[in-house]
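EI: anyone free to look at a 304-residue chain?
SC: sure, send it
EI:
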Amino acid sequence: MGMIPNPLRPDADPRGDGRRTVIWWAVATLVANTGIILTGGLVRLTGSGLGCPTWPRCTEESFVPHRELGFHGVIEFGNRMLTYVLIAVVVAMVVAVWRWAQTSRSLRQLAVVIAVGVPFQGVIGGITVLTNLNPWIVALHLILSLGLVALSVLLLLWVRGDEPTATASPLVLAVYAVTWVAVYLGTVVTGAGPHAGDVNAPRNGLDPQVMSHVHAASVYVLVALTVLCIWRSSGAVRSAAVVLLVVELAQGLIGFVQYLTDLPIALVAVHLMGAAVLVGTATRLLFTSPARDTVPIEPVDVAQ
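SC: here you go
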């Protein structure tokens, strides 16, 4: 597989329209937005959420951690630095989209929204530190990150040829809405559980067992709606719904196992990544048009 094309070079795409370049940077944007969810989760799971006790500096005197902050300071500061890597990726993506011969005003606007969302997320992350890892703000931080994942999936689908249209059925819309309800309730469960990010960080005060059952109920509804969607749909929409169902079942299994094994860090991290995959596959279903069954899209070879 070749290197990622440089968006500043108009000759980087042998097709001549820049499509391969844009696809590469759309993929990079999706991967980066997903990856920083994992690293942010590891900050919390290792108890490093206040490894840098303030923001935007790491300490009152320095932007970088000092030796006394130890392992937790390194973990928290490293996650902050990854935000700048993500910013570099999305800036390159915006350049590629704006230079693409097949671009549109709406596609450019989407690219800019994603790019602006990344530093905005950094500010929300800073607020979580300044509020001593308030669980409701931590939940908002994750939900916004998952929102960027959803927008990144939309961007990738769009540049590959699946321009979004208002063709989703009410059933598909219901599946997508309940997906977000289930994900949000998962963050509420986390806010009631033991992995606070720091031993002194507050919890939301809700009963974790009760909230786990409420979250599980939303997952049951989601699975039922997805099965119904598979039954009532056909072609590309059915295929996308089948993929979503597989993700839901895998995510549900991981959730049950982590609940029964007292939330081991490794499983919680996998479950966190599963949430990003769940949102991504649900977004793919939302923007899968039935018209794809009758209007084939020319495949794009990005491996040359």
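EI: The helical segments are 19-45, 70-99, 105-130, 135-159, 170-192, 208-232, 235-260, 265-286.
SC: 👍
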